[in-house]
């Protein structure tokens, strides 16, 4: 039985592959947590009503603080709240 790592239920990487690629979990910097909270407050003040956006804001803030590019299909939200993050978007086949 292999152990898997799942990110928001979208990507599952078997432990064998993680080990072969020497992947590691990176701790979220404290400034990113603060930035995620600020983004959530802004979202709520602007009338946002979803209650499951903190994870997205945490991911965006981590990318912003650490200067990581971010692979996403949700360019609108990430560019609105984290304008300095370089977004990598998959091309949509037609």
Automatic annotation (TrEMBL):
It comes from Candidatus Propionivibrio aalborgensis. The lineage of its organism: Bacteria, Pseudomonadati, Pseudomonadota, Betaproteobacteria, Rhodocyclales. This is PIN domain nucleic acid-binding-like protein. GO terms for molecular function: DNA binding.
């Amino acid at each position: 039985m292999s152990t898997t790592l799942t990110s928001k239920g979208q990507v599952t990487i078997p432990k064998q592959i993680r080990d072969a690629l020497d992947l590691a979990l990176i701790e979220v910097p404290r400034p990113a947590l603060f930035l995620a909270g600020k983004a959530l407050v802004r979202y709520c003040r602007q009338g946002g009503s979803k209650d499951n956006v903190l994870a997205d804001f945490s991911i965006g803030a981590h990318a912003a603080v650490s200067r990581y590019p971010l692979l996403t299909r949700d360019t609108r939200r990430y560019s609105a709240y984290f304008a300095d993050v370089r977004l990598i978007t998959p091309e949509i086949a037609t």
